Amino acid sequence: MFDFLEGYDLLGAFWVTVQLTLLSAVGSLIWGTMLAAMRVGPVPLMRGFGAAYVNIVRNIPLTVIILFTSLGLNQTLGITLGGGDDFDTINFRLAVLGLILYTSAFVCEAIRAGINTVPVGQAEAARAVGLNFTQVLTLIVLPQAFRAVVGPLANVLIALTKNTTVAAAIGVAEAALLMKEMIENEAQLLLIAAIFAFGFVCLTLPTGLILGWVGKKVAVKR
Amino acid sequence: MSSVLYDAQGPRAKRRNVLITVVFLAALVAVLWWVYKSLDDKGQLEWAKWEPFTKSESWTTYILPGLKNTLIAAALAMVIALPLGAVFGIARMSDHAWVRIPAGAIVEFFRAIPVLILMIFGLALYSEYTGISSDDRPLYAVVTGLVLYNASVLAEIVRAGILALPKGQTEAAQAIGLRKTQTMTSILLPQAVTAMLPAIVSQLVVIVKDTALGGAVLTFPDMLAAVSPMSSYYGANVIASFTIVALIYIAVNFAITTFASWLERRLRRGKKSTGAVLKADDAAVGGTFGTGAGGANA
């Protein structure tokens, strides 16, 4: 029944999906945190930049961004991101870049929402007992903010996992591209679809359950 | 200006802010200059590359028909997904386990799968088992993928909207002798719908953005796909066409978002509904990532 799977690197394709997810997750966590820091900081210019970035990027389809990294950045401007002549490497890196640029807008909003859940009274009380700014931030505000952020960030991670399929649009050999190829060449349509659906359920469902549980566990009850 | 993170600023903090502003501005200008330089080096800023977009023919033959297809797909997906989502959202709250559990499983299943996978499957399914012409197939596939995914997201929104209503509403309805169906259709749903409206409108942003997938992978003639022949026809104005396409998407989605938050403010002010109004952002950021209402998609 599963004979037709021979000749297809199913695990390899899902491994590329996982790599895309993890690299983009790390990148967008860093860039998204920096954006969030700008958006909640005291400098008006940075606040403006953060808000503009988030509102622009959030409203552009990821497909447009990823296609632009390939057609615009690579083929028109000649940016290779150090990938040399190898198209697979270049496209993989471009896809990661596009996913980071897009996802960090959502990471930024999740973190900002987390900081907003901390009541101003917490910081005021901390200052009233004589803590200085660094202490207020590291002992009182950020610990509460981080704990509120786990759940929303888990949702961003799940969405990111699913969004990696968009990399198929620029020919990165991940799961969706392999599925398209297999459907074109093989007859077992429903079986192929079931296999790929199962693969993604395996990737996203545990992430959601585990991180959702952790998020509930650590969240500050108010 | 005081927030939980910083206090009202004294003279030293103000001086420091000015310094940070100057440094940040310098960095920003440097990046913009680099972008300008690399565009200019490749001749991407020449008027010839941008001129096609000032002509009315290129709008009427390429961009607007593409935009029309994008909006048609999004509207169809929304119109079909909404009732489906309502049915599944209500079914998930059923008293009967044999309704509740399958409905929950279906909703969770379609939320866990990427829209693109659903679209590719839909395209293959229609070409294999139906007589839909190959011209129409991409539209059907795009709408199918969007409906399956967004119906499950909307189901969660509907459920959240109904659960947000005070318990007294159900109890009062039961006290005057309404059946379960009557309670749902004449008491709970009407109130929940007003509470859900902003979140539902925001979900449109996700749908509009996801239609672009069809253009890139399924040969659906959406705005993105419609603009690409312009590049070959007028020379390599890739940067220009992507800029225009992105601006149109931003304009459309910004209009939807603005409408959603206007709706939210209006509904919050009015006292017609007893339920908490679901935030517009829950779906957009998203409905995507908010409050268990789904996954922010492309």
Describe the structure.
The complex is a heterodimer of chains A (222) and B (298). Chain A has 222 residues and is mostly helical. In chain A, helix 4 crosses helix 6 (133-163). Chain A has one domain (3-218): MetI-like (MetI-like fold, Orthogonal Bundle), CATH 1.10.3720.10. Helix content of chain A is 77%, strand content 0%. The relative contact order of chain A is 0.14. The longest helix of chain A has 31 residues, at 10-40. Chain B is mostly helical and 298 residues long. Helices cover 76% and strands 0% of the residues of chain B. Chain B contains 11 helices and no strands. In chain B, helix 3 packs across helix 6 (137-163) and helix 3 packs antiparallel against helix 9 (223-234). The radius of gyration of chain B is 24 Å and the shape is flat. The two termini of chain B are 36 Å apart. The model of chain B is unreliable at 282-298 (pLDDT under 50). At the A-B interface, helix 2, helix 3, helix 4, helix 5 and helix 6 of A face helix 1, helix 4, helix 5, helix 8 and helix 10 of B.
